[in-house]
Amino acid sequence: PRSFSAAFQDYLRHLGLQDFPCRLGSWDRSCPNARRRPRAEPAGLEEAVPPGEESPEVLLELLRDPHSPWALPPDCSAQDRLLREVAVLAPELLRGSRVFQVFKTLRMVDKGVEELDEGLLQFQKLEELILSANRISRVTSAHLPRTLKVLELCCNAVGDLQDLCVQPPPGLQHLGLGHNRLRGPSQEKHFTVDFWPNLVSLDLSFNSLTDLVGLVSQASTLPSLRILLLKGNPLTLIPTYRGFLVDSLPKLFILDDICIRPEDRLQFHGLAEQPELARSEARVVVSIGEMKGLPDPEAFQQLEVGSEGPAITYSYCVTYEF
């Protein structure tokens, strides 16, 4: 499996931090292997700058000028721009293992990451880790920096949270698991204060969670939870879904991107005491307007009374898969 560490090294190579105009090459005057140039004569005049040893200001302009052949593409991320500029202004910060100390926020989106290995532990100051749109199916908490406050794993293949909940980062405030493969009712048990004492925002949208009562029972133990996303799960088809959640979680501010107003609290007051209304079933009414490719019964000539001809009957079965 493609590890996070391998993807990160590929990412750094793609940025070209070792190439001109970044200052990690031989043109960098702070580099021990850089060519030393003689002082300008006569004394007192400004030191000459031979080719390949441009000033940081000139190198920075080559990165920022949209017409420069070394400029980053317009759609690059702010993280890409920051690293390239750091490589010009303070290249010593990106040499060797010191590069890991630069990151407080790290975005590795759509990089083909399949496994989170121990290399993540080198990011000792990391607070925000965004790994959306990869191929991650398993997250081991032992490989996550303890300093994390935001962990975004949207659009991956996570189907079980047991390894993540062994000893997760204690200060985590946002956990994003939308568009994954979580199935109920086995996963709802992982969303309690025992694992996430400081969680403020939880995104579980577009999974396969089905146990509304069980999920609410666990989430009600989260003392700091204010934002919850559950849309796209089967449990949202339950008629009393929103009302039951609003009344059961009085500290919640936002549910499925919709603010909870005081009048909502009043309207749904008392539903939390009636869990039987939040049963795990839903009624769906489907109206069929037109069907093509089927024989029209009215097109057949009606048999006369007393006719001995055979009667032909057509029946159809329509199946809906959710």
UniProtKB/TrEMBL annotation:
Keyword entries, A-Z: Leucine-rich repeat, Repeat
Gene Ontology annotations for the cellular component aspect, listed alphabetically: cytoplasm
Alphabetical list of InterPro entries matching this protein: Leu-rich_rpt, LRR_dom_sf
Secretion signal, residue range per the UniProt entry: none
Keyword Repeat recorded: yes
Residues covered by region (Disordered): 33-52
Domain of life of the source: Eukaryota
Protein name: LRC43 protein
Gene from which this protein is expressed: Lrrc43
